[in-house]
């Protein structure tokens, strides 16, 4: 046991306990102050990010890092910086996820039961190299009343360190304990923390399936995993061709390195010589590599004129194609004979993240939505919509590929649990039962937390 | 890998997939039929239970089984049988926990997002020797749309076997697959099933802390543990004496073998010579053994006249006293100097099940409710109210001592997750962003599931 890890975990639990006695306004204040600290340090943070990017480019050039990872590192790209800060404000402006009553019953006269949302406790969040995640997660943890221990990817160390400093400076200007949000640097610390189930309430690993499974294998603490996104699109027999092309291209091309990008395209076999060639030509023209099963491969090879890039961009699929998160301009393709077969393929091969159907048939849409066992089941819409911002949560702590507690994009609601508060006046269970008093279980309308 | 375990798990997952395409009315039908099967076989089941009890009595007499366990075995005792059947009807009558929309937003014109409750999938439930639990859990699983694999305690094998046969006979009369509810007999099968995270979605172990921790250590599958109930009562400085005596006695004596029975009594030190002696005399008169810290021990030894049973029933506590689930007429007692110290003691020693405060001070009640990190935080009420029936859930699958997904008594709501359904018309993410379309995130009032 690393004593440093234990010190961190004990401090986090103590910070959580102390924070429970502060009003939630203090946490809003912390978010405002942290945003100001980030703005004040923008130049230094982006300079550190440029350093991280430079080091990463060397790794990419040497073939030791993927281009997809490099792209995720860049905090200055597009609207990333502004989105990050806006995310803090958005989270601060969202309604408090704690203190809400989701069940209230009068068990009997003067004996009232309330189920009240409350923070989970101490979160251990392990994430990839996207540096803005430090800020996203700190904001979500603070707003939801949880203490957090954060471990980012080593590739963004310089950026993450300055972001963490800004967060710490912000917290120091509030009544919240300085150890409310802590960052750690090494995998060894993570290993030690995974043993401390008395102090840590939830582990949130974001990354590969291997990372998530490794953590699940090595801790008793509940794990809310954000694993691979192996998202599929199914082109149903009744698919509208224009919608199919639009949805497939956006799902694949809008941001290929994202977990909600399309990795598998499933074609109803009735479309092999009609819609499939049209979709394939559009994908190939956009430089997408296709790993095809025999039927979809044969359909392309039989076309006249031959599609652009056929020889360079179309290859036979292997069984592994359908369980691979490409995160690049590669797409696995297969044909199936029925909607039921598409549902079965998805349930057996997808990562239960987000899958979409393109169809004009309401019955097919309903069967797909009922039958596909994934966090997101979409109809005639791009898989890229699977995202906390887009869903309206302000920001997200991850996209849960598990089913317990929270599923899909996880915002504030996924970071709270609840407790039952029962208020009586000396009430005892022995007064109830056959021949004695009966419970009324009368709903209390408009109940608010009694504390 | 036991091939038998894999066969069971694969069959359960297939049964779940098939059930997803049936209307929920089929599941209600199954519950009605199962109840009738149980009624028709009552005599045979109670005869088998008598056999189990006879075998258990031999174990108790030989000192190999606790009396508490024996008590839990008896299906004919009091209103247990009728409660069990009533539980099936109550669960059948409860509203469907699946298909409910908990979040609905128009992301933009014609692009609608729905969060819809749905079953979790395949449950593996491991429980103690209480035979009625087979029926409770089967009813909850069926009503909530989950397939289940059940493993009961070996002490109730004869009873559980007949209960399972009745359930199977019932299922066979419906469209639900015969493998929707399966029972297994051996720990070896449990071990094999714990490796099958592709087929099993949730493990629900009910039993000792050791059982729950052992399972948590040996599976990647999420665990909803029902571990020890180490419940505490705190008598605050302002406690009303009559309420204190009533609440403490009921919490301890109403059903000492239950997980929601009182195990630790915490006394504000201002009450050591006033309320404490009164409570202690009542407990001793009821044959309760007290394991006392020095302050509470000294207070009793100083009393004139000496309390009944002082020499036989009052002993010094050890540190282990405060982390022990006695499940018998033994109670651990300590004095503390403040409300804050009581909260800290409970957070460090209780099993986060249910804790109660006796107080007339609203501020103390609020601080206790905010500060105590347990599933149930009660004010002037017996810990024995922590129960799914009493909370109004119809029945319960267990009382979760974890914080994730479900906490406290777990009824139907704890057995569902949700999925996000997004319905568009060829909508793509690339159309949104700075300088392009914006999301509206308009709330859809009164939304119902679109499938």
Automatic annotation (TrEMBL), chains A, B:
Keywords, sorted A to Z: Amino-acid biosynthesis, NADP, Oxidoreductase, Proline biosynthesis
Domain Aldehyde dehydrogenase: 5-293
Catalytic activity, EC: 1.2.1.41
Pfam families registered for this protein in UniProt: Aldedh
GO molecular function, one term: glutamate-5-semialdehyde dehydrogenase activity
GO BP field: L-proline biosynthetic process
Domain of life where this protein originates: Eukaryota
Coiled coil location: none
Biochemical pathway: Amino-acid biosynthesis; L-proline biosynthesis; L-glutamate 5-semialdehyde from L-glutamate: step 2/2
EC top class, as a word: oxidoreductase
Catalytic activity: L-glutamate 5-semialdehyde + phosphate + NADP(+) = L-glutamyl 5-phosphate + NADPH + H(+)
Function as written in the Swiss-Prot or TrEMBL entry: Catalyzes the NADPH dependent reduction of L-gamma-glutamyl 5-phosphate into L-glutamate 5-semialdehyde and phosphate. The product spontaneously undergoes cyclization to form 1-pyrroline-5-carboxylate.
Listed NCBIfam families: PRK00197.1, proA
Family stated for the protein in its record: Belongs to the gamma-glutamyl phosphate reductase family.
Protein name: glutamate-5-semialdehyde dehydrogenase
Organism: Schizophyllum amplum
